[in-house]
């Protein structure tokens, strides 16, 4: 078994209990929390229709892209660059909230107490009028993959998927990650080219599409070592998040991952982070706790979401960024000119 298996989703969902396919899925889900899926049912056009306009936006001159930053300084809306401590570009992102405004959230059935989550507008570049519909289709398709993968994991560990109280509408976010290339001397080691540090997502499942010429995404195995996730055209990458680990009282691993890129290699990824509905309290399910004590505290999806920007700014926010957010104006980080 490879650490991050490539699973034919359709075939695995039809596999008999006890089959080698399900044994592979089970090992990956319990020990790593990262898989790739093929034959996942998402049409190639749904992926391309989102990625191609994003390519064109990210190829615009920086002075044009600066105008696509969140007008209110929200770290998870619109275009953004992240410099490292030396001012060198590490990561460029374009982020989309689930709804454009509180009225749209309300129409989708989101309770009023969560409307503040959608008070900061999305940025829809006028250059790409089709992006909004393409992003909606991409998000919806990837939520569908997340649900099917949960069904697969349930089968692989022999529980009914109905034990997971995953109700909709799912709370989701959509993030494009673009890693820079550079011509300065290449430090050579992975540790010195870590552009996204190791972490597990706080979703139930995250579904990603990666593109590029280098397998820079790495997943952590049970021995602590890192394995590259090869770039397989058409495949999607699925990370188990901390909420899946919580529900299963640790039986299923939250996939720890990181990204090595930079230098001459290219990498682009676009992830949909999938959570159950905002009023869900995630806590270890009786099926996984047995007679013992749960190992995880209850996690209220909506409350955590409401606090997430403050949590983020407290840990990572630069003073000018925090000031811009407080004052409701755009923030564009200073970055060193590429060399
Ligand atoms: O670029 C990637 O493949 C990883 C992105 C990621 O881990 C994240 O956005 O949480
Ligand atoms: Fe991640």
From TrEMBL:
This is Fe2OG dioxygenase domain-containing protein. It comes from the Bacteria. Pfam families: 2OG-FeII_Oxy (PF03171), DIOX_N (PF14226). InterPro entries: DIOX_N, IPNS-like_FE2OG_OXY, IPNS-like_sf, Iron_ascorbate_oxido_reductase, Oxoglu/Fe-dep_dioxygenase_dom. SUPFAM superfamilies: Clavaminate synthase-like (SSF51197). Residues 170-276 form the Fe2OG dioxygenase domain. Coiled coil: none annotated. Belongs to the iron/ascorbate-dependent oxidoreductase family. Pathway: Antibiotic biosynthesis. It comes from Dactylosporangium fulvum. Keywords: Antibiotic biosynthesis, Iron, Metal-binding, Oxidoreductase.
């Amino acid at each position: 078994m490879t650490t991050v298996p490539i699973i034919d989703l359709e075939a695995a969902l039809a596999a008999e209990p006890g089959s080698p396919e399900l044994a592979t899925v089970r090992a990956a889900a319990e020990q790593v929390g990262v898989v790739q899926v093929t034959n996942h049912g998402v049409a190639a056009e749904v992926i391309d229709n989102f990625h191609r306009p994003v390519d064109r936006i990210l190829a615009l001159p920086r002075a044009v892209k600066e105008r696509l930053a969140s007008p209110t300084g929200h770290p998870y809306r619109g275009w953004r660059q992240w410099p490292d401590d030396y001012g060198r570009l590490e990561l460029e992102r374009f982020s989309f909230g689930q709804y454009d405004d509180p009225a749209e959230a309300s129409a989708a059935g989101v309770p009023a107490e969560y409307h503040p989550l959608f008070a900061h507008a999305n940025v829809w570049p006028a250059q790409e009028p089709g992006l909004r519909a393409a992003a909606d289709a991409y998000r919806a398709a990837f939520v569908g993959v997340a649900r099917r993968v949960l069904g697969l994991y349930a089968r692989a560990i022999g529980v009914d998927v109905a034990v997971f109280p995953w109700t909709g509408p799912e709370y989701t976010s959509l993030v494009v990650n673009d890693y820079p290339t550079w011509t300065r001397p290449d430090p050579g080691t992975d540790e010195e080219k870590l552009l996204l540090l190791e972490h597990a997502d706080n979703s139930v499942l995250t579904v990603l599409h990666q593109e590029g010429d280098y397998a820079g995404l790495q997943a952590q195995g049970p021995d602590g070592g890192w394995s590259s996730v090869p770039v397989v055209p058409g495949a999607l990458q699925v990370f188990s998040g901390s909420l899946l680990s919580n529900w299963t009282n640790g039986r299923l691993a939250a996939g720890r991952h990181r990204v090595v890129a930079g230098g001459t290699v290219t990498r682009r990824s676009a992830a949909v982070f999938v959570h159950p509905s905002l009023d869900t309290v995630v806590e270890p399910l009786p099926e996984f706790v047995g007679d013992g004590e749960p190992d995880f505290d209850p996690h209220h999806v909506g409350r955590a979401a409401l606090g997430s920007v403050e949590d983020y700014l407290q840990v990572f926010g630069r003073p000018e960024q925090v000031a811009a957010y407080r004052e409701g104006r755009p923030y564009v980080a200073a970055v060193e000119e590429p060399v």
